[in-house]
UniProtKB/TrEMBL annotation:
<protein>
    <submittedName>
        <fullName>Uncharacterized protein (DUF302 family)</fullName>
    </submittedName>
</protein>
<dbReference type="InterPro" id="IPR035923">
    <property type="entry name" value="TT1751-like_sf"/>
</dbReference>
<dbReference type="Pfam" id="PF03625">
    <property type="entry name" value="DUF302"/>
</dbReference>
<feature type="domain" description="DUF302">
    <location>
        <begin position="32"/>
        <end position="94"/>
    </location>
</feature>
<dbReference type="InterPro" id="IPR005180">
    <property type="entry name" value="DUF302"/>
</dbReference>
Amino acid sequence: MMIRKSTLGQRSTVARLIAAIEHRKLTIFAHIDHAEHARQAELELPPINVVVFGNPHAGTPLMAADPRVGLDLPLRMLVWEDGPGLAFVGHHDPRELAGEYDLAEQKETLDRMAELLDAISAEAAGS
């Protein structure tokens, strides 16, 4: 997992993550607030959010090459709090998908995805 420490709190980091994704005109498919779901079940959990997003122009050729990659797409990023005011942004390196699936010929797309996630996580973390 690629992890970046945020210079901001967890909520601000999530807001910046969503803004960075929207600025790039990517589709947000889901925003999961694990802590809120835990509260609804009368359980406690520190703030943990997952944002699921992507672009069909990038993901579709990968799934056409190997449909099994649909289990790992669309892309997702995690923002969690590890103590008051201490937040982190994490994501998997999409280049690792080439080892799990038949995507050797999709290296350029996976490289671009990795660069995109790095840029988005930096923007979200305020670094």
